[in-house]
Design goal:
Residues 117-278 form the JmjC domain. With 343 residues, the chain is an alpha+beta fold. It has 2 domains: 6-263, Jelly Rolls; 273-341, no CATH class. 30% of the residues lie in helices and 22% in strands. It has helices at residues 6-10, 23-32, 47-54, 56-66, 102-112, 128-131, 135-138, 221-226, 273-283, 289-305, 327-341; strands spanning 13-14, 37-39, 72-77, 84-85, 95-100, 121-127, 149-155, 158-163, 168-175, 178-183, 229-233, 238-241, 246-251, 256-263. The strands form 2 sheets. It has an 8-stranded antiparallel sheet. It has a 6-stranded mixed sheet with strand order 1-11-10-13-8-4, with no helix packed on it. Helix 3 packs antiparallel against helix 4 (56-66) and helix 4 (56-66) runs antiparallel to helix 5.
């Protein structure tokens, strides 16, 4: 994979590094954090990290030994794509999806090692507990009372376009090296996002090629870079990414493995904000301007401000979904929405 212009990354601020002595200290840092931070060596004692430090092949053998006998989904890129899993010229995908046992996928990586015409291979967001036996128990970060989703990301040299995720994220490099380029939430306007319903992996992505940014086509990207931070991670290092921060991810070694933990501080029974955005595009965006202005006021009244004037005049026992949400009222509202959307 060709390296990005080093000048771009050399002038970016580095993500701060923090030291944590134990799980309790990590918990305190996570609860207090409002921006990304790195913990060097957080998972350096993982057996998977040790295997990878010996060789990529030993890391693959370790993973195969724990893999369940079931097909894995792998993204297969095109030779000459510089490892970038992205759109093609027609705004389709420049990669295809395949399914195979993990050992078969790794056999392809072994066979192509060192070849310039190799297909980039990438297994993204694989559920650790669902697809492996004992891997989580031997290689995990204790996160206190959180109940995170543990996922593993495995691949050759790849580039994943800048995107964001709703949950908080602790990303741990187990094998290889990774570079994360991060942007605060509000920089979305300067990242030139693509479609929200036709995406490489479910989230809108930046259309900017970070290895060769076109500042004529994307002039506001220069402003985004003024707010960017970069994290260069080795095996054993971990990076905390707050919810909704944008991140461009590169696997820099011939073989790379990352384990990440996603969690949300809000209850799981609350809805997904992206669903509300999608429905607003469907139902509000193309209304006349005066009607859109009225709906903006209503959203501010009921959602973004939601002050006492919304409910003080309604008997407490009759406030329904206008009262603080509970699992029961969330379920009732979800059922109502499903009925409405099915008409």
């Amino acid at each position: 994979m060709a390296e990005a212009d080093p000048g771009i990354f050399a002038r970016l601020a580095s993500v701060p590094e923090l030291a944590v002595a134990d799980a309790a200290a990590l918990d305190r840092q996570l609860r207090a954090a409002t921006a990304p931070f790195i913990v060097r060596g957080l998972v350096k004692d993982w057996p998977l990290v040790g295997a990878g430090l010996r060789s990529g092949r030993q890391a693959r053998d370790y993973l195969v030994a724990h893999a369940r006998d079931m097909p894995f989904t792998v993204s297969v890129g095109a030779p000459g794509s510089d490892g970038r899993l992205f759109y093609d010229a027609a705004m389709g995908m420049n990669f295809r999806m395949a399914r195979a046992r993990l050992g078969e996928i790794f056999h392809q990586i072994d066979a192509a090692e060192g070849r310039a015409d190799a297909h980039p291979l990438y297994l993204g967001s694989v559920d650790v507990k669902g697809y492996f036996r004992g891997l989580h128990e031997a290689n995990h970060v204790p996160l206190g009372t959180r109940t995170p989703l543990a996922s593993i990301w495995i691949g050759t040299q790849t580039r994943i376009a800048a995107h964001n995720d709703f949950p908080d994220n602790l990303a741990c490099v187990a094998v290889g090296r990774r570079r994360f380029t991060l942007f605060p939430r509000e920089q979305f306007r300067n990242l030139y996002l693509g479609p929200i319903d036709n995406t490489p992996a479910g989230r809108a992505v930046s259309m900017v090629d970070f290895h060769a940014p076109d500042f004529t086509a994307h002039p506001r990207f220069a402003e985004a870079l003024e707010h960017a931070q970069v994290a260069e991670l080795e095996a054993g290092d971990a990076l905390y990414i707050p919810s909704m921060w944008w991140h461009h991810v590169e696997g820099l070694a011939a073989f790379n493995v990352l384990v990440n933990y996603w969690w949300r501080e809000t209850p799981k029974w609350l809805g997904q904000p992206q669903d509300a955005l999608n429905h607003a595009i469907l139902s509000i965006r193309d209304l006349p301007d005066d009607e859109k202005a009225h709906w903006r006021d209503l959203f501010d009244h009921y959602v973004f401000t939601a002050g006492p004037e919304v409910t003080d005049h309604i008997p407490e026992e009759a406030r329904s979904v206008l009262a603080p949400m509970t699992p029961d009222t969330a379920a009732r509202l979800r059922a109502f929405l499903l009925r409405q959307l099915s008409k």
